[in-house]
Design brief:
The structure is a homodimer of 664-residue chains. Chain A contains 26 helices and 20 strands. The longest helix of chain A has 20 residues, at 125-144. Chain A folds into three domains: 27-308, Thiamin diphosphate (ThDP)-binding fold, Pyr/PP domains (Rossmann fold); 339-524, Thiamin diphosphate (ThDP)-binding fold, Pyr/PP domains (Rossmann fold, 3-Layer(aba) Sandwich), CATH 3.40.50.970; 537-663, Rossmann fold. In chain A, β6, α10 and β7 (241-246) form a beta-alpha-beta unit. In chain A, 41% of the residues lie in helices and 14% in strands. In chain A, α21 packs across α26. Mean pLDDT of chain A is 95; it is low at 1-8. Chain A is α/β, with parallel strands linked by helices and 664 residues long. In chain A, the strands form five sheets. The first copy, chain A, has a six-stranded parallel sheet with strand order 10-9-11-12-14-13, with helices on both faces. Chains A, B: The active site is at residue 412. Chains A, B: GO terms for molecular function: metal ion binding; transketolase activity. Chains A, B: InterPro entries: THDP-binding (IPR029061), Transketo_C/PFOR_II (IPR009014), Transketolase-like_C_2 (IPR055152), Transketolase-like_Pyr-bd (IPR005475), Transketolase_bac-like (IPR005478), Transketolase_fam (IPR033247), Transketolase_N (IPR005474). Chains A, B: Mg(2+) binds at residues 159, 189, 191.
């Protein structure tokens, strides 16, 4: 499909990568040479003969995706971006490797405009992201056809990524889903940071992939043509492919190659000099011979005809299909998309207080209203979703790529990382659904979403001791705090159907970072009894019920299922002549962004403030002030009926009233 | 080795389990019948023919361990404990299944005195705990010989546990370590809570185990004698064994068996009646025929001769070996064990302020002093440890079980869960070591340690932006807060060599729960310049330097590497005539346990309090009060030299001084 770079020229091309990495690492005084020196030939084969990309338009939607899952080898990526002509990676930038403010950071940091598809470093995340990209590609391919979406996803991967549980989950699920356009190149160098891989693994990794339904090719990772040929075979196979590339870590540094120190042992100028002699590279540091650079730049232009053809096909699409494709690429929602949710709010209030509904049912009803959004995909870890019931979405599987519902099995971690990969890919709004008690299982992926600012919705059910008799393992008490502690992660815990609709609007509209959506298993009685045109949750916290009969003396602050308890407590306090307000705080992150005057007005200056949440106090003190109190959990939960647990742990209107009175 | 229960009697034995489970679940109105009904025959084979145990002494050190990794099937365990005669599980207790205060909780909760080896429910944890138990057994066997430690570890496991990444990590590592006494019984029922396993997995699970070096036997899980025979073979094989037991979920409930609803669909009395007819079980609910119960009680007494023989062998041990064995069983440390650490404190102060040492080196030095403790085992995820350098511990591996250092590979999650299993096993004090940025990878295991109150030490290096140029993926900013939020988890972040020694003393002495030990990669200059006989860290926080020249106006509160910055800031404030104290807060959990008077005296009533930590503010407000300020991170880090990052993010003495002055 792409013109071959003549073979005699390829070895210098690989060495160009190798010496850019050596020179940058020597200059920085630290770095990880193992990957760029060990995978230089593999990268040369991929980038000069297979990868579909356009350095002049790094965000071309139908480009092949390339993920450096072993992200500590970041100089490999920076060298490739420099050599193929990405504007942000000029040679001066390469010289700033690992300096403050450099684009050449210690690990690659997500910036698709610059050519970096995803942040990598925490092991296993990158290959799981790549898997998510391949899922998104297959789904969009089914929607828009081969002419518009038809690309591969390549990932480079080291032993560490494959040892990690999330990597193993990915192997199993990608094999199950038979994602034929996903191709991994494994840097089989038999060394990790700790020493020989034989210290910690004995299994035949290739066989492990084969068991999971992968196509595996074993190849000499330093033979460019062999790797290129293997990639050609991999691209034709309907299964996901592993190229098991036998390599020598840090190849070219005589003192370290093939050894533990190859990973990141310090490189000195003498090492660089020796490598220059050994490999016949007489050029000065950062100096690339013209013909080599020209060949690389030619490689960077290899896909130009495909790029033009693709744009012609896009232009030829029917107007509505084209508009839809372009819309979902931007992440913009259709005009008026939230109208159905506004109506839902109104209907909830018209239905009246009544019995309320389970939090997870409310969330499912709301998401059912959005089933028309083609860009929405739901990953679910062994749970009927508090998002969209399966009735409104059908399964994405090996036979049918049009389904928007991915059964992830009991694999929360890869589910979260898959969602990140989908969001990084673009064209898809991913949701990842499981129980809140198991948020910790996907937390490393959630952190990556927050760090990258990816618009993933992490959705959780069973959010407190309200889970009931499944007991403390299944009852989150500290997990809200641990998620609120995460920068750039918006955590929403709505109190009723109205707040749930408002929070979902805010979540879908938030595009610069992930959201955590938390829903009770138990019934959420209606606490918002009057329709408001505004989205009251948009400020994160608001006065749900103002004090009456005098200046406010007490402010009850609550979230989620405990707002209804605060409302009941307020009634009693008001009956006792104590003017009391209830503040609902569905999203602390948004509330903290409000100005001081608003926050203080809501929190109630000089009032006794009582926080109410069926969770631990950690993180609440900033709102409560020095006179404040807290009604909630002080440790893990217990096994018993939900109502009995609330009584047992003293999270009741009576306890709230008592806590307030004690402080007056 | 044990007398067989005659075959004709075994089917009623399995049905006794089945009907106890059905009756308890019908009574409770909810439960998970899938496992107890599907695994009743497997459990009968194991408990009546193989398991070495003594219900009269559930904590017999050399008992076989039994872990119900699919813990949602808890009624299987409670039924077995009842049938074999554990005192805490009388029939009245069984009738309280899932009620508040019952020992028969929704999921099994750790209580070795009652016969529950480990809390299970979060999937994958149990099998990884079992793996840790098998590691502990092999290690102690090498120390004390076959006569004293020589038992198997059995775990029941469902599809969910095997899909989880932690389960996959366990398969790989247990195969590598060739733990021949670890035997899993897989409930191969092809159903998960979400539906058929074919929704989310295609691989041949048995083959996956074989690739990892396991011995696999496929067997009909409803054929008691076949399972018993397979267990006999498994016990003889030098490899870890998987019994792949083909089963029918919820077998016996005609309406649900073999179907998704078998997992936990509601059972009604009519279902129980139908099952009674179907299986020829005419007995009333909770009523067991005398002969069946007698057979089960006989099974519970099967190991009595072995039990007596074992005690005789223990009594015959040389006195010192016996004393040591008995000491490590209790978890008690040898008298005067901390003397070396006290000396270390003194020496650190005598060495003087100087340049200080890297936090991780300090921790390694301290732990090197403890290499004489035979009960200490270190699991390490691809990192030279900030605990004991490898020089003082040799590797535990397939050939040599005497090593106390387990190379876990890049598998943090199974490392943590392994440590939990070791601690639950007893006789071993486990440490689990990795980078703090990757604490999230083992967090689900850390939560289980906290919930169970297991004395595991979770040790972390590279604790802040001080990591430097590896960038934000590798820089914890929110992770301290997320761990402090966890109930029953003591988080220590020492400021220098003296505090490190004190914190390690506290960690080793803490036996009712886990500790998190956090160390800086960078140098920790000495801040404790005067030797104190007391362990000042024991109260969690203390005045490191009192204000001088008048009433204290400012209190600077800091932890870890930022204490030295606070000390410098104090000097400047004092020079400006502002009496300022520095408070070190190495362990919030311990500080929060102190009485109000102590805490207020330390925090400084009516002073301006400034928190200083290279982490986010979340959780600090309770200490800072309404006038307080915070110098730290507001989001994720960046890639650059450590010192430049501290400057960039404004975590410097100058910023601390300015923050204090602004509030005076």
């Amino acid at each position: 499909m792409s013109a071959l770079v003549p073979m005699r020229e390829t070895r210098p091309l690989a060495n160009a990568i190798r010496f850019l990495a050596i020179d940058a690492i020597v200059r920085a005084g630290e770095g990880h040479q193992g990957v760029p020196l060990g995978m230089a030939e593999i990268a040369t084969a991929l980038f000069t003969q297979h990868l579909k990309f356009n350095p002049a338009d790094p965000q071309w939607p139908d480009r092949d995706r390339f993920v450096l899952s072993n992200g500590h080898g970041s100089m490999l990526l920076y060298a490739l971006l420099h050599l193929t002509g990405y504007a942000q990676f000029g040679i001066e930038q390469i010289k700033t490797f690992r300096e403050m403010g450099s684009h050449c950071e210690g690990h690659p940091e997500f910036d698709t405009a610059a050519g970096i598809e995803v942040t990598t470093g925490p092991l296993g995340q990158g290959i799981a992201n790549a898997f998510g990209m391949a899922v998104a590609e297959a789904y969009l391919n089914a929607k828009f056809g081969d002419g518009i979406v038809n690309h591969h996803t390549y990932a480079f991967v080291g032993d560490g990524c494959l040892q990690e549980g999330v990597g193993q989950e990915m192997i199993s699920l990608a094999g199950h889903l038979q994602l034929g356009k996903l191709i991994l190149c494994w840097d089989d160098n038999r060394i990790t940071d700790d020493g020989s891989t034989s210290l910690s693994i004995s299994e035949d990794v290739s066989e492990r992939f084969r068991v999971a339904g992968w196509h595996v090719i074993e190849v000499d990772g330093h033979d460019i043509e062999a790797v290129a040929a293997a990639l050609a075979v991999a691209r034709l196979d309907p299964r996901p492919s592993l190229l098991a590339c036998r390599t020598v870590i840090a190849r070219g540094i005589a003192r370290l190659q093939g050894q533990r120190g190859g990973h990141s042992g310090k490189l000195f100028e003498a090492d660089a000099d020796a490598a220059r002699n050994e490999l016949g590279w007489p050029h000065a540091p950062f100096d690339l011979p013209r013909d080599v650079l020209d060949s690389w730049r030619d490689a960077g232009r290899r896909s130009q005809a495909e790029y033009r053809d693709w744009h012609e096909r896009l232009a030829a699409l029917p107007a509505d299909a084209r508009a839809e494709f372009e819309r979902i690429q931007t992440g913009r929602l259709p005009d008026g998309w939230q109208r159905g949710l506004d109506d839902y709010r109104k209907r909830a209030i018209e239905r009246g207080e009544g019995e309320g509904e389970a939090g997870i049912v409310i969330s499912a009803e709301i998401n059912d209203l959005l089933a028309y959004l083609p860009e929405r995909m739901v990953g679910c870890a062994d749970l009927e979703a508090p998002t969209s019931h399966k009735r409104s979405l059908h399964a994405f599987n090996a036979e049918d790529r049009s389904g928007a519902y991915v059964h992830c099995g009991v694999r929360e971690h890869v589910m979260g990382a898959m969602a990140n990969g989908m969001a990084a890919h673009g064209g898809v709004i991913p949701l990842a659904v499981t129980y809140l008690a198991f948020a910790d299982y996907e937390r490393p992926a959630m952190r990556m979403a927050a760090l990258m600012g990816l618009p993933v919705k992490f959705v959780f059910s069973h959010d407190s001791i309200g889970v009931g008799r499944n007991g403390p393992t299944h009852q989150p008490v500290e997990i809200l705090a641990s998620l609120r502690a995460m920068p750039n992660m918006r955590v929403f815990r709505p109190a009723d159907a109205v707040e749930a609709a408002e929070c979902w609007v805010l979540a879908y509209e938030h595009r610069s970072g992930p959201c955590t959506m938390v829903f009770a298993r138990q019934t959420l009685p209606l606490v918002r009894t009057r329709h408001e045109p505004d989205n009251l949750c948009a400020r994160g916290g608001y006065v749900l019920a103002e004090a009456e009969g005098g200046n406010r003396l007490v402010t009850l602050l609550a979230t989620g299922s405990e707002v209804a308890l605060a409302v009941k407590a307020r009634e009693r306090l008001q009956q006792n002549g104590i003017p009391t307000a209830v503040v609902s705080l569905p999203c602390w992150d948004l509330f903290d962004e409000q100005d001081d005057a608003y926050r203080l007005a809501v929190l109630g200056a000089n009032t006794v403030r009582i926080g109410v949440e069926a969770a631990t106090r950690f993180g609440w003190d900033g709102y409560l002030g020095e006179r404040g109190g807290f009604v909630g959990m002080t440790g893990f939960g217990a096994s018993g009926p939900a109502q009995a647990l609330y009584e047992h742990f003293g999270i009741t209107p009576a306890h709230i009233v008592a806590a307030a009175k004690r402080r007056l």
